[in-house]
UniProtKB/TrEMBL annotation:
Keyword Signal applies: yes
Domain of life of the organism encoding this protein: Bacteria
Signal peptide extent: 1-29
Organism lineage: Bacteria, Pseudomonadati, Pseudomonadota, Alphaproteobacteria, Hyphomicrobiales
Name assigned to this protein: Transglutaminase-like cysteine peptidase
Keywords: Signal
Length: 212
């Protein structure tokens, strides 16, 4: 019941969000016609333990964690697809109010779809994936990813695995960057082959992704 109610609220929030204008960054920075240059992909190097809050998220929002191996493993980037990615990334960043889980829910780490319009890093990215999947992009090619950020803290981003390399959606910027240009240390991400996680070679794995 909690999942159905949460999903219904999430869809309502998403409908409202898609009516919001793009945030105030230069429109020419990333446009419909400007596909990104091809870049290197991040290479998984073995299995990894998932974030505990992700496990709880998958229990509450099971449909958000389903992995269909019949889906493409990479997004075929076209100008239209790139425009959809850039637009949804900006709109979610504009629409959700950043707040830590401790401030919001009085717990160290909780993953959800920001149904009340408030969330921290992983909630932004989960809502983006929800919206992109609804727009027709393969969920299998959109993997939640844990990094160490510029403050040395655990942080969550969404990695888009494409035919032009791996790109990152982040709530700290509305520019979609190649993974290796973010300045982050990449620790692990969801597997493309099952409901599990894989290591990206980072040495220190955070227990939570609890910052904004």
């Amino acid at each position: 019941m909690r999942y159905r109610n949460s999903l219904a609220l999430g869809l309502l929030a998403l409908a409202a969000l898609l009516g919001v204008g793009a945030p105030g960054i230069p429109a020419q920075a990333q446009t419909l016609a400007a596909l990104p240059a091809p870049t290197a992909a991040a290479a998984p190097v073995g299995e990894a333990r998932p974030i505990i809050a992700w496990v709880a998220f998958c229990q509450a929002y099971a449909a958000e964690c389903v992995l269909d191996r019949n889906e493409p493993a990479r997004i075929a980037l076209t100008p239209a697809t790139w425009n959809t990615i850039v637009t949804i990334n900006r709109r979610v960043n504009r629409s959700v109010r950043a707040m830590t889980d401790m401030e919001h829910h009085h717990v160290a780490d909780r993953w959800d779809l920001a149904e009340d319009g408030i969330g921290d890093c992983e909630d932004f990215q989960l809502l983006k994936r929800h919206a992109l999947a609804a727009a027709g992009l393969p969920r299998r090619a959109m993997r939640m990813t844990v990094v160490i950020d510029e403050k040395g803290e655990g942080h969550a981003v969404l990695t888009l695995i494409t035919d032009r390399g791996d790109f990152v959606l982040d709530n700290k910027t509305s520019v979609v960057l190649p993974w290796h240009q973010t300045g982050y240390t990449f620790i692990k991400r969801e597997s493309q082959d099952g409901v599990a996680w894989v290591s990206l070679g980072g040495v220190t794995s955070p227990v939570t992704t609890a910052n904004r």
